[in-house]
Design goal:
The chain is mainly beta. The protein contains no helices and ten strands. 19% of the residues are buried.
């Protein structure tokens, strides 16, 4: 058995081709991240990876649209998004493949 803590992972990312990780793989990445109301992430896109965001709790704004608990947002390669927590929120994100350097700022 192995035990880790989410807070020891970088930005909530705990599976993927990076360190630290619970499972190191280039196939995909997984994160769990809590946001306080008003927290933002800058606009960006991935040229290779597909990114899937599950809004577990709260309301967020991504790619110019509002999303709430239960929504699953899939961004294909080259689709731009930014992120704003409209309320306190919790997300789970899966990105495939796990590819270092495939995040391109767009603003």
């Amino acid at each position: 058995m192995r035990h880790d803590r989410l807070e020891t992972m970088t930005g909530g990312w705990f599976v993927g081709d990076f360190t630290p990780s619970v499972l190191r793989t280039s196939d995909f990445e997984v994160s769990v991240k809590s946001y306080a109301k008003g927290q933002r992430e800058a606009a960006h896109l991935h040229r290779v990876a597909t990114e899937i965001t599950v809004v577990v709790t709260g309301r967020v704004k991504m790619a110019g649209r509002e999303w709430s608990a239960g929504d699953i947002v899939t961004l294909e390669p080259n689709e731009e998004t930014d992120f704003l927590a409209l309320t306190d929120a919790l997300t789970v994100v899966v990105k495939t493949p796990s590819l270092t350097g495939d995040k391109y700022p767009t603003s």
